[in-house]
């Protein structure tokens, strides 16, 4: 089953609009006064979780390609990664706007003072070079080898994101642990396949 | 970092009571759920009748009090600020009576110096309690002088109505100058003692939650700042007040104490 160019375009559009649905639901709820008692916390948390979800979806592409032979999935990986960056931006902006009242110095002070904010901020900053170099033109400019090396940063970013989530929770670590387990499975696959490859 | 000092902005920032919907749809009640918006749903079937509180320990007249008896001790409205340790706050019009009124009836012995509280816990009614990540039943404690302070309330309702399940029906503690988790919900047991009582969050994370847990903008939680708070219904943060704005009434209880050490 090899999708044609127009299939791929169709699925890209489908993924694009689906990935925006959480944001649209939130805007709809907000416009209708249905966003709950603490919209500040809800929006910051939701954008954070969406960032993690899209990071994990991005990391799912390689194992799925190899395990199921779905090579075409690579066509959608960039979009998934860029959605991780998009929701990461919204997460940062809602935090800075609502929690820090747009104060740059307040944000910097917060990063210095609170380890979990620092972990989140570093992860976000590491996402920026990946987003910037996501275009084909950039890939050609820096060379495929270096590009691949650079984009390995996603492993560090995903770990940082999950740790950041784990650190904010007061006692019920269920969801951070779910993300940690999912991430471990995705890493486990890579370690296993690297081991198999090394063995020949 | 420009954080406005409490004195100049606090006066300008009025304390408008939160709406009934806000107060009853955003609750920390881990026995039912750790998701604040799910608590109201999970607690909707909570059976709170009959109810009684067993009052004992170092008292001359230990006994159980039925809810009707407690309601008969009188109901007054108290509009208090409520500051959660997580960094959000509300203003809540409670109904209730001073805890001191109940303690008078059991006559604490002269050696009693602390009051221990225990919440109702029933795994059948609260199946999600297993996932709370804290040891249940929930326990809390106050020093006796804190417990008999006129601001310390046993609350039986809010907005003139009986206490909603999700807010700690049918009777809960309200200590407005301390972080919200000190205000234990759905109380079934009160014990006078001469030992510092164990408290749930202190047991769960002793470096993060102390016995006193007075609202204090100058002592940060290890993971977040306590200098300011988000009042539910507002989109920016407002400065947190010392003792949640009740310093005139309660500061004398802690005279000479290092509040950083006794956090």
UniProtKB/TrEMBL annotation, chain A:
Residues in the signal sequence: none
Which family is this sequence assigned to? Belongs to the MsrQ family.
A Pfam family assignment:
Ferric_reduct
Q: Per its UniProt record, what HAMAP family does this chain match? A: MsrQ
> What GO biological process term is on the record, naming one?
protein repair
User: Keywords for this entry?
Assistant: Cell membrane, Electron transport, Flavoprotein, FMN, Heme, Iron, Membrane, Metal-binding, Transmembrane, Transmembrane helix, Transport
Q: Ferric oxidoreductase domain location, by residue?
A: 48-161
Organism equals: Formosimonas limnophila
Residues annotated as transmembrane: 12-31, 43-64, 76-96, 116-135, 147-167, 173-192
Outline the subunit composition: Heterodimer of a catalytic subunit (MsrP) and a heme-binding subunit (MsrQ).
What are the recorded GO MF terms, alphabetically? electron transfer activity; FMN binding; heme binding; metal ion binding; oxidoreductase activity, acting on diphenols and related substances as donors
Q: Which gene encodes it?
A: msrQ
Q: What is this protein called?
A: Protein-methionine-sulfoxide reductase heme-binding subunit MsrQ
How would you describe this protein's topology in the membrane?
A: Multi-pass membrane protein
Q: Which cofactor does it need?
A: FMN; heme b
């Amino acid at each position: 089953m090899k999708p044609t160019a127009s299939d791929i375009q169709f699925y890209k559009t489908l993924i694009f609009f689906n990935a925006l649905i959480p944001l649209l639901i939130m805007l709809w709820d907000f416009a209708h006064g249905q966003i709950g008692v603490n919209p500040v916390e809800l929006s910051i948390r939701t954008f954070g979780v969406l960032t993690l979800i899209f990071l994990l979806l991005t990391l799912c592409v390689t194992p799925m390609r190899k395990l199921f032979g779905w090579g075409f999935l690579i066509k959608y990986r960039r979009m998934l990664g860029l959605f991780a960056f998009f929701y990461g931006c919204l997460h940062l902006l809602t935090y800075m706007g609502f929690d820090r009242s747009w104060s740059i110095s307040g944000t910097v002070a917060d990063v210095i003072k609170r380890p979990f904010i620092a972990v989140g901020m570093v992860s976000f900053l590491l996402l920026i070079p990946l987003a910037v170099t996501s275009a084909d033109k950039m890939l050609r400019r820096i060379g495929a080898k270096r590009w691949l090396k650079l984009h390995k940063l996603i492993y560090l970013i995903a770990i940082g994101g999950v740790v950041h989530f784990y650190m904010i929770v007061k006692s019920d670590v269920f969801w951070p642990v779910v993300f940690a387990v999912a991430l471990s499975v995705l890493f486990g696959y890579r370690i296993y396949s690297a081991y198999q490859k090394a063995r020949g | 970092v420009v954080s406005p000092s409490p004195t100049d902005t606090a006066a300008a920032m009025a304390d408008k009571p939160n709406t009934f919907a806000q107060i009853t749809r955003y609750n920390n009640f881990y026995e039912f759920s750790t998701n604040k918006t799910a608590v109201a749903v999970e607690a909707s079937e909570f059976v709170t009748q009959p109810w009684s509180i067993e009052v004992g320990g170092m008292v001359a007249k230990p006994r159980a009090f039925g809810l009707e008896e407690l309601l008969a001790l009188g109901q007054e409205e108290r509009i208090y600020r409520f500051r959660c340790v997580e960094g959000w706050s509300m203003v809540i019009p409670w109904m209730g009576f001073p805890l001191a009124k109940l303690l008078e009836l059991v006559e604490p012995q002269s050696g009693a110096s602390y009051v221990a509280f225990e919440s109702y816990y029933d795994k059948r009614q609260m199946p999600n309690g297993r996932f709370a990540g804290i040891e249940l039943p929930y326990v809390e404690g106050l020093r006796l002088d804190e417990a008999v302070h006129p601001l310390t309330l046993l609350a039986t309702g809010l907005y003139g109505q009986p206490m909603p399940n999700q807010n700690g029906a049918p009777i809960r503690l309200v200590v407005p100058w301390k972080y919200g988790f000190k205000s234990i919900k759905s109380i079934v047991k009160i014990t006078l003692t001469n030992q510092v009582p164990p408290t749930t969050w202190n047991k769960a994370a002793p470096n993060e939650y102390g016995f006193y847990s007075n609202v204090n903008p100058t002592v940060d939680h290890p993971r977040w700042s306590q200098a300011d708070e988000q009042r539910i219904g507002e989109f920016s943060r407002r400065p947190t007040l010392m003792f949640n704005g009740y310093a005139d009434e309660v500061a004398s209880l802690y005279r000479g104490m290092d509040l950083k050490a006794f956090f």
